[in-house]
Amino acid sequence: MALLSFSRRLRDLADAAPDRLAVTCGAEALTRRELVTAGNDLAVHLQQLGVEEGDMVTVAVPNSIDWFIAYLGIWRLGAIPQPISARLPQREVDALLELANPGAVVGLEQAAVGGRPHVPFGFRAPHADASHLPELVSRAWKAPTSGGSTGRPKLIVSGDPALFNTDDPPALALGTDGCLVMPGPLYHNGPAVWSCQALLNGNHVALLSRFDAEGTLAAIEQYRGTVLYMVPTMMKRIWRLHDDVRHRYDLSSLRVVWHLAEPCPEWLKQCWIDWLGAERIYELYAGTEAQTATIITGAEWLAHRGSVGRPADGTVKITDEDGNDMPVGEKGEVWMRNPRDTPTYHYVGAQARTLEGGWESLGDMGHLDADGYLYLGDRAADMILSGGANIYPAEVEAALQEHEGIHSCAVIGLPDEDKGNTVHAIIEADAGSLDLDELRTFLADRLVVYKQPRTFEFVNAAVRDDAGKVRRSALRQERIDGLAAGTWSP
Length: 490
Hints:
globular
């Protein structure tokens, strides 16, 4: 077994093929040697700012070459990259910086960092001799954030150090010397994991500055993309392109299309399987906490429609609200257990929900079938209790997203004196493009009466971010506050 620090691994790749592309984003591109050099330069600069081994360094950088330079510089010092969105409101920035207490902040201006050392976005450190830097290994290779269903910020610090095992096969079916096309935002865990693993395994990362449906297909053709990262929101927007546009691009280089991060409607997954072939479509289910994971291929999914895969024995179980095990086919809370001897993560700013025996829950609901395959519902906190019936927003959202005029949507429960809650749909669509009566008829063919939204709200802004994430609890609270203040009505 050969274990190398991430920094050493990337330097070895640069020595082996210095002129091979490492990262592109729009018009910018860096070879392996250029990326390593820029990372070393930033490491020296961060060291001069006072960053030490084991420090967190907050990275608030949009999708760009700079994000990768920041990570390489941080790993070179044995520090821990702690990514956040570059577009967070200052209140959330303050809360996360208080949790992380970073040695420096990359990407924000001085006024936003509370007096901490900082490197503004776009800054490129002057060339410096990094030979004096010792060979260090970050004790945690990442520390992303999550608000979860509660909206309270927390850090999820990886239990894995920044070590690369050269004897292991490439993770995530990435292969080597290929190209990952990444349209997702790198401050989210999935895009960051795929991008870093692709880089460490010797692949080129073709990064989009932001998701664009046709631009993603163009990048696959231009760079001969071998692996594509998707979330269902992206999949739908690509599928809704006119056939002439979708079929304009050569996608023959693609070996694997990954999708994850949110439930994928069955109709949409079937469309992609029919288009690109079941052998190319892979789905992964896991939390950032990584206690365990399931993976399902397109072929397996066709035999177990709606499943996210079969977990390893002893790593997933389903219980009722009192912690009692549920029988096969019965829905309950999903509990996961880490099979290895060392922790996969620890929280800063939160406590895990646990059961005796090492079981932990992320709040997801689901069930197991007779073959051991896992099927997911919504987070327990997002479930709508209306007139005594449990309504899962993802099911209603999946029906809504079948409508060709809907770009994205979120379903929440609003307080109701009679039923406790009523179903409210927030829909992103082009102004004036939807007829409400037609939409109600459309949903009546797909949902039982009690699951159909009672009220609709049409918005121009994206309901979900580019990673497919939506904070239903925050959307609900905003509308409850608006109702109380008389500034909003459904």
